[in-house]
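Homework help board

Subject: predicted structure for assignment chain

Our instructor gave us this sequence and asked us to write out the predicted structure in token form, then describe one feature. I got the tokens but I'm not sure how to describe them. Can anyone check?
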Amino acid sequence: MKNEERVVIAGGGLAGLRAGERLRELGFQGEIVIVSAERHLPYHRPALSKEAINGELHAADLRLTISRELNAIWRLGTAATHLETDRRVVGLPGGEELRYDGLIIATGVEPRHLQGAPRQDSRIHVLRTVDDAIAIKQAINSTQGLVVVIGGGLIGCEMAASVKTMGRDVAIVSRSNTLLGSAVGKNIADTVTEAHRARGVRMAMGVKIRHWMPQAGGVAIHLSDGQVFVAAVVVIAVGASPSVAWLRGSGLVLEDGVLCDPTCHVVGASDIVAAGDVARWPNLRFGGQPRRVEHWLNAVEMGRAAAENLLAGRESSRPFTPVPRFWTEQYGMRIQGSGLPSMGKDTTTLAGSKKDHRTITGFIDGGRLVGMVGLDAPTAMIKLSMELWRQNRVPEAERTRRVPQHLAPPERLADAQNPAPQPGFTEPQGSGYGRPVAPDAAAAEPGFAGAQGSGFGRPVAPEPASGHGPAVEQPRQPTRSEQSGRHELPSFEFPRQQQDSQPLPIPPHAPVVRSRPHPRSLARTGPRARPR
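My token output:
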């Protein structure tokens, strides 16, 4: 073991934090340096557009629990400026150079700017950091009049719902004709749009902004349909772009993020992995097309997987093949998503209720279920998620590869199965790859059987590395009494070969392990680092 080895983590958010913790869990005893552009330690970012805005939680409530074993050097308020892969150096402000033996890129994303918007006006805001949320909250509390949210995606809708619960007049301006657009399917999008409209949110859908006119009484926004909104506060929520400006000239492939191999190793460099929103990689469970996934749980899982594979080296690494999950809540309605709905060419209704709005939309690509989004249907989502896993199995050649020796043995699971709860929020511990629990176990829990905001299953103990998991109970058909209840499951023809498939493969990475195995150094895939 070489205790002088150093791993640098560029990015102090959730992915970077969980990556650093995983390094320690696997026995890395070298130096860990976390370089973060933010001045705050990691916090719960999904709450920024909800509880942090409406006042339910304060900044101190959002802080994430950091393992005492991490023992990292935090360089807060210090943005990485450049990367020299040949010298293994991360550049810092003032000309400082930080040498590394292994590098984890987890710099996340930055809010997109809207062309023509007078960003210098103090009444116009974006939302990405806790400082942004504090500024928006202060602006709302210190003004009267209309709050205009530009953008009808998840963040825009959550923001509008939060402001509306504060008793303020709110308007949503969107280029799409429905809120959330194709991300959740037409039925759910229409329901969410109507929910906002029924609560008095002013809607300007399918429009463009023609002119911005800052005035003493507010910012006048002229729309293509002739409407004019005079806003006391404007929040721009039109998406985000990967934070990769500091990587230009490094030789890495920067195409909508940092391009990675299936194992999270960065293309074009040795001893570098990437994780979280900034990483673009081919999820072999869903084909070979590289994609980015901007979800909370993906940052947890990918940060841990990247750390594991950095220690293992390219040759011994396993592909990162999760089933992505996300959720959002507005006006008490919970929307849960699983898989990659964006891949779907067609949609179908997988479950629904004749009595109310509860429904699940399935997204189909070539006759295969690739994603689904449910509205207030947690139990049915858990049951159907098994079919989503079955129809998107990792290719046999990848699934049966040797498990790297750095993975922890399955008997060390005490803390993984009983994680300490965090005040205010819970986060799934372990790799959380979301292998669905059996339907009866899921139904035994009230509501959603998983950690809040996590996905669709509790962490499960891994079986021995055989390439297959334990026998999983098959989803049973609902009885007539169940069909007359909240969720009626219509017949849906899945491919025959998938109906006859074997039990689900085990998640490729081990859960959280608090007991530390033998010390480990970085597996070398390139030239040794130069002496410091």
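Reply (TA_rk): Your tokens look well-formed. For the description, you could write something like this. The chain is about 20% helix and 20% strand. That's the kind of observation they're looking for.
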